[in-house]
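Fold this: Serine/threonine-protein phosphatase 2A activator
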Amino acid sequence: MSYFEPRKRIVTKDDLAIWEKSQTHEDLLNFIVDLQNSVEGLTNQAKVHESDAIKELVAQLDVVLELVEKHPVLKERDISRFGKSEFCDFYDDIQKQAPSMFSGLVQDKEAVVELARYFGESWGDRTRIDYGSGHELNFLCFLYCLHKLNVITKDDYPALVLRVFCKYISIMRQLQKTYWLEPAGSHGVWGLDDYHFLPFLFGASQLASHPHMKPKSIHNKEMVENFWEQYMYFECIHFINSIKTVPGYDGNTQASLRWHSPMLDDISSAKSWAKIKEGMIKMYNAEVFGKLPIIQHFMFGHIIQCPEDVPEHSDDEASDCDP
């Protein structure tokens, strides 16, 4: 097989239309649905099958944490109130380490060039020192490649979400706070979250069959405090409440969400988590897979193949993808 470093191919609205009707799009969306279904009714700490591949992935994420510790923010180096320049050192180290991190996982060593690219671009943008749903999508693509390479099977899906993806999100929270990563292409108060989408999508599934927890529970401060470590959706609410303040905020979580996260507030009025679970897939398809500003940065290789009808573009056209 001829593996190669994944690269951007979607440039125009016509390209996007082809992508949305492609088998690659359908396969990735089905992968997300399967992951979502695999954690229905499970807490983050649920006992699930952990294969050697899952354990190795968790171990390599520990390596990423070590790299964060290796590149602390130095006050005398950068007084910027925006992204910290030490992130660039962390980013460069990830790119250097990535090819060797997963060579032991795959039989076909040539595939590492594609794994390393998706993994390396999962942590944010070096130039803008920002992070958004496109980077989160790169991590999902990394996991999808492992599935396509038969490194992981469907039996691994619950652990892939609860052990690997949850750890990734935990690391990203640390990066966002340590390096002051800017939100990439944030929807502002009209988005779910400045940085992430998938924790809401998986988190709604965790709660879909819960006998007592209702969507409006996110407004209960005590409930959020008690359950944020067990459910991804509550972790998201907990994180948002911890970093966003409201003038005159008196501890009323409901008022806070209505002020800075009206979409989450609106979603909480849904009749059930099952409805939210279903709606999250539709929203992800529309707001991530269906948005040119995000998909123009999507990378295609041999494993995740570009739709055949997407034409090759000149370097000048392709460079227009970048801000």
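Residues 17 and 254 are 39 Å apart (CA to CA). The radius of gyration is 19 Å.
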